[in-house]
Amino acid sequence: MPSKIAPSFAFEGAAPNQPYNRTMASTKLLADIELAKRLERTEAYGCASFVEAHARIDPDCGATWQEFAGAHAMFDGASSPITQSFRLGVFEEANDATLGEIEEFFRSRGADVFLEVCPLAGAELAGRLVSRGYKPVELSNVMFREIDRFAPDSSSTIEVRQTGDADADSWIDTTVRGWGDIPEAADYLRQTGPVLTQYATNFLAEKDGSPVAAAALIISDDVALLAGACTIPEARRQGAQLALNNARLAYAAEQGCNVAMVVAEPGSASQRNAERRGFRVAYTRTKWALTA
After folding, report:
1. Residue 213 burial (CB < 10 Å; 0-12/13-18/19+)?
2. Residue 181: pLDDT band by 50, 70, 90 thresholds?
3. What is the pLDDT of residues 86-137, one digit of tens each?
4. 161-170 long-range CB contacts below 8 Å, 24 or more apart?
């Protein structure tokens, strides 16, 4: 079954957030195929980085990924939410031969076949998937905003810092507590904590010296993927998520990024929080499962 945990740990705003300052620059980018390529490339890069980190930490786990006609197929275990494909049909045509190769990649490893498909890949691909026995099982909104003129808010009482190896246990503990409202998410994060601290740039938000929120950031070229933000229950509605958002955007701008992205369930609190921070929907992506 598909998981509500985003494969790249990307669903933002698991906890309620403070409203975002709407005086930030409006988006000029158009939600076209060129932007879709940038966004899909970034999320695929994040998933591939996760798989590679897992393989380094546990060489016997079987984690691997492979490219098929521009699509990236990830395997991180038969039941892992990472195990699926991205970029299908966006960079190259996904014909029946390509789909057959991807299906064999998963089936040969004992995994079900899940494909994340951007709508800009075209209706013909959707029809081909239906004819091969696929059905849609999940939707997600891929959202974006410009960050080239971003200026962080220095008035927050929450302190945010980038974490290092010495902070790994604290970051994992804060993340698990922050996602505790979703037991399956907390369990998954607890199990994969060592990998999560190795594949992305992570941040901790602290109040009075104690960790209250955590988040991650994945950078590919000039696009920054904001991922996994959460706040522990007793510290919610105190500005921690806004501070984490500002810190990550400022860091991304320093690294030369000019676009930020998040992924959210359509109509969710996560989407509303992202919209308050200046993000807008680029497209709604569909996860397809092979049922035949």
Report:
1. buried
2. confident
3. 999 999 999 999 999 999 999 999 999 999 999 999 999 999 999 999 999 9
4. 161/203, 161/204, 161/206, 162/201, 162/202, 162/203, 162/251, 163/197, 163/202, 163/203, 163/204, 165/197, 167/202, 167/204, 168/193, 168/194, 168/197, 170/204, 170/211
Q: What is d(CA 51, CA 61) in angstroms, rounded to the nearest whole number?
A: 10
Within its chain, how far is the Cα of 205 from the centroid? 19
Are 177 and 185 in contact, with CB atoms under 8 Å apart?
Answer: no
CA distance 91 to 88: 7
CA–CA distance, 115 with 129 (Å, rounded to integer) = 10
pLDDT in tens, 12-56: 544 333 333 333 344 478 899 999 999 999 999 999 999 999 999
CA angle 201, 141, 150 (to 5 degrees): 50
Q: What is the DSSP letter of 120?
A: G
8 Å CB contact between 206 and 215: no
Task: Please give the pLDDT value at position 187.
Answer: 86
The pLDDT tens digits of the residues spanning 219-243 come to 999 999 999 899 999 989 888 988 9
Domains belonging to the chain, first-starting first, are 33-140 (no CATH), 145-283 (3.40.630.30)
Read off the DSSP letter of residue 104. Answer: H
Q: Is 97 exposed, middle or buried (0-12, 13-18, 19+ CB in 10 A)?
A: exposed
Average pLDDT of the residues of the chain? 88
Strands (E) in 46-179, as ranges, are 64-68, 71-75, 84-86, 114-117, 134-146, 159-162
User: How remote is the C-alpha of 23 from its chain's centroid?
Assistant: 26
